[in-house]
Design brief:
about 230 residues, 4 helices, alpha+beta, GCN5-like_dom, eight-stranded mixed beta sheet, three-stranded antiparallel beta sheet, Aminopeptidase
């Protein structure tokens, strides 16, 4: 690991989250970890121990789909690659300056977990599970008692927080709700001395432009590997 890069742990973010700030959500062995089932479908190998991926199988169920980030280890029999998702990893180091939001932003609680799950899976199915909200703070915008936009924190490392689940109901797009939520979440973290980062599909040029407009800088291209247990 290159100590000259303050963000080098972001080359394997799930590992450093699961062995640090979020270790209470981890199961696995000393060299391979996964988020508990129902929390997040992500796993990770310790750097230099990619052969350990085979021991992960005892923590996975047949038919289960999960993700690895970064370097893909040699896959054992019983774990197959579905697809590679090339993502841009972006980091924000300066406060987002936006005009004050003319809309109320609400911190979401455990009682909001169902509307949160429903909204995210309507807009971005596949990555967010029933208990993912436990990983960090989630904020939302409501209209007529309906949650119409949200953003939250997913992987958290020492001094770093991943901004995730940035969703707006298609009926409410174009109102800058996502911008206001991202600014609120990022500025709250920056004020606490925590650097926000995020991942966005390389093909999602519109989102990348928005994040760059808000001040995010591209750090690297990093693959997400979607895998399945046979």
């Amino acid at each position: 690991m290159h100590n000259s890069d303050p963000f080098s742990k972001l080359d394997n973010p799930a590992w450093w989250a699961l062995t640090g700030v979020q270790q209470q959500f981890a199961t696995g062995t000393p060299h391979v970890k996964r988020y508990q089932r129902g929390i997040l479908p992500f796993a990770a190998c310790e750097p230099g121990h990619t052969e350990s991926i085979s021991s992960l199988q005892q923590w996975l169920q047949p038919g289960e789909v999960f993700y690895l980030i970064g370097e893909l280890p040699p896959l054992p029999t019983g774990i197959s690659l579905i697809k590679e998702l090339p993502c841009v990893q972006m980091v924000l180091q300066n406060k987002i300056e936006l005009p004050p939001a003319a809309i109320s932003i609400t911190k979401l609680e455990a009682s909001h977990s169902s509307p949160l799950f429903n909204l995210i899976n309507k807009v971005q199915p596949g990555y967010y599970e029933k208990e993912t909200w436990q990983l960090g703070n989630y904020f939302g915008i409501w209209q007529q008692d309906e949650l119409v936009a949200c953003a939250g924190e997913r992987m958290r490392l020492e001094g770093l927080t991943e901004i995730s689940a940035i969703c707006t109901d298609p009926a409410y797009t174009g109102r800058k709700y996502a911008q206001y939520l991202i600014a609120h979440l990022c500025n709250t973290n920056l004020e606490a001395g925590i650097i926000p980062f995020l991942h966005v599909l390389q093909t999602n040029e519109r989102a990348i432009r928005l994040y760059e407009y808000l001040g995010f800088k591209q750090r690297r291209l990093i693959p997400f590997w979607q895998l399945m247990v046979s």
